[in-house]
Structures are given as structure tokens and as C-alpha cells.
Amino acid sequence: MRIKVLTTALLFGLVACGDGEPADQPAPGPAPAEQPAAEPGVLTTAEWFEVDHDAQTVSIELIAGTTSANNYWNFHGLFGGRGGITVPEGYTVTLTLVNRDPNMGHSVGVGELMATWPNSFTQVTPVFEGAVTSNPTSMTESTLPGESETITFTADQAGEFALICYVIGHAASGMWLPFNVSAEGEAGVITS
Ligand SMILES: [Cu+2]
């Protein structure tokens, strides 16, 4: 989402800072790509995401290995920073990690957003207390194929974070998902 927004801002900046060419000149190059049905960066709903504003709770079923994309190292088919989840600040989040990858254990935790990801994590400290599955760095004792694990935490700090698989090599290979905590109470998912 952020990348798209930045790209748009950059393009706008380039246009705005142009050298005064007539505005009615058609832009050179290929026509812009058609917009997909769901605009990137716009929060939407999904059957795996439920928010209850009265109870101030969010329920997420996070499926690892949903598709074979990225060698099954994905959440809901998303990897490499695509997609994302936004929850309102202060809400209690119940997240169930479901591992459908036929080959490999996975984990998930809420961590700081990084520009690049280390191959291995020597220490895992989640941003929110309780916001990480058990044995998150272990290939043999994390959430194994066919297993699931539920964690519960309170998203008590607004900001831009990430849902990270801490198994060695996985985050570096793209197995992470943007996770935002909104001070404005926004909730939803981005699925592309
Ligand atoms: Cu993984």
C-alpha cells in the first residue's frame, strides 16, 4: 500500500515540477494499465478477518501456504510486502495461524517493519505482549504443516508494523505482511 502511494506521490511530484510543457500534450509511452477491480491500497473485507467495534476485538485467521506462491512461503498468497492488515488501536486481536504449506513449518509474530530482513533472528521480541507463536525460529518446532496456533494480544500502540515468519530464511524470502495499527480506528485488509 505504502509503495503505491509513494509511487503516485513521486509521479505527481515529477509532473508538478515539469518544465512547463503544454498540459494538453498526450503523454508519451504506453497507456496506463487498467485499474484492477479492487484498488490497491484500499482497505476491504475478507472472510478471514472479523472486527467487532462494540467489543473492540479483531479476529484473524492467517493462513500460511494458502497458495504455492513463493514456494508456499506466503500469508493468504501474499508475500514480499504486498497486501496488509489494519486493526484499530487498542483492540484485542485474536490471530490463528493455520499452516497449509505441505512441506514446511511457519510462525508469525508482530515485529518492527524493516527495510530489509535478516536471514535469521537470534532474538524475537514482539511489539505487543503475546504477539508471537511458539518456537518462532524453529523449522521443526514452529507451527508445522497441518497445524494451527492461536495467539491473543492487545494492539496498544499505533504504527506500521509487520507480521513476520521468523523461521530461518523466510522473512528474507518475502514471508511477511504489513500490519498497521490505526489511531483513527480503521480496520480491514488489503488482499492484492
Ligand atoms: Cu515461514
Task: Tell me what you see in this structure.
The chain has one domain: Immunoglobulin-like (Sandwich), CATH 2.60.40.420. It starts with a helix and ends with a strand. By secondary structure, it is mainly beta. The protein has one helix and nine strands. Residues 1-23 have low confidence and may be disordered. It has one helix at residues 2-16; strands at 49-52, 57-64, 84-88, 92-99, 109-112, 148-154, 159-164, 176-182, 188-190. Residues 73, 106, 165, 167, 170, 175 line the site of copper (II) ion.
Question: What can be said about this structure in brief?
Answer:
With 192 residues, the chain is mostly beta strands.
What does the main sheet amount to? Answer: 5 strands, mixed
Strand order of the largest sheet: 5-7-8-3-9
CATH topology: Immunoglobulin-like
Strand content: 25-35%
Q: Please give the number of β-strands.
A: 9
CATH evolutionary superfamily = Cupredoxins -  blue copper proteins
Mean pLDDT: 86
Helical amount: under 10%
Which CATH class is shown? Mainly Beta
Low-confidence stretches: 1-23
How many domains, as an integer? 1
Rg over CA atoms, rounded to whole Å, is 19 Å
Helix count equals 1
Layout of SSEs?
Elements: H1 2-16, E1 49-52, E2 57-64, E3 84-88, E4 92-99, E5 109-112, E6 148-154, E7 159-164, E8 176-182, E9 188-190
Parallel strand pairs: 2-4, 3-8
Antiparallel strand pairs: 1-2, 3-9, 4-6, 5-7, 7-8
